[in-house]
Amino acid sequence: MPFDRRHVLAQWGGTLPGGEIWSNSLRLASTDTGPDADVPDHDAMVEWLTTYAKDAVAAWHSDFGLKCSSAAKLTYLKMNVVDIQGHYVELNTLEHLYSPVVSGSSASNPHPTQIALAVSLTTEFSRGTAHRGRFYVPMPVHQVDPVSGLISVPDALQVATAAKTFIEALADEPGPDFVVGMRVCVMSQRGTGATNVVTGVDVGRALDTQQRRRNSLKEMYEHVSVDQGAT
């Protein structure tokens, strides 16, 4: 099933302890629809990636309010124009590799690699196709209240505020001429496709589990013998 317009896919990620990896993505689109929707050309994409977007993603990952573990490393950012079939318009991926890599902001209270914090993207719609999206903070270090099992209200609000800053910086509106009109959107390929502009951010207070990371992390056992006497 198709998207309803051409758009830009931004993907970023890196490494976690134990050889694990993480990644996130956001889609940016204009108000134009269809296979020829207005998107930046090659040169504009390169400039957007290397001059603006790479710094916006690095600032997000290292934001102190995010409380992302310093063990979570940001190593790359990719940005590509995608057609309505979901294929890259250019054969070669536009990619920035961070050197040095960017670490999360906190070395304290690390949780297991499969723990993440969801950042939910809201639109003007409360239901229906493409009304809500999400991406994740990898390996957060928030303290969990022993009674409620939740992170604190100030911590959740700090992450939401950091996400707002990040989304606005990635779109960089009004921004340089070559990306004016591009907005972070929630997009779906269901039916004839749907696109809704992100108008808000929700951050819940319950930490999430990325089960695929737990499944791929190799278990390492330590063994001790048990002696219960002669049988």
In short:
20% of the residues lie in helices and 30% in strands. It has 231 residues and is of the alpha+beta class.
Count of the separate structural domains? 1
Round the Cα radius of gyration to an integer and report it: 20 Å
Structural class: alpha+beta
The SSE string, one letter per element, is: EEHEEEEHEEEEH
Number of strands: 10
Which strand order do you get reading across the main beta sheet?
4-3-1-2-7-8
Can you characterise this structure?
The chain is α+β, with helices and mostly antiparallel strands. The chain has three helices and ten strands. Strand 1 and strand 2 (20-29) form a beta hairpin. The protein is globular and about 80 Å long.
Key phrases:
alpha+beta, 231 residues, four-stranded antiparallel β-sheet, globular, six-stranded antiparallel β-sheet, 20% helix
Please render the helix and strand layout as text.
Blueprint: E1 7-16, E2 20-29, H1 42-62, E3 73-82, E4 95-103, E5 115-122, E6 132-138, H2 153-171, E7 183-188, E8 194-197, E9 200-203, E10 208-209, H3 211-216
Helix pairs in contact: 1-2
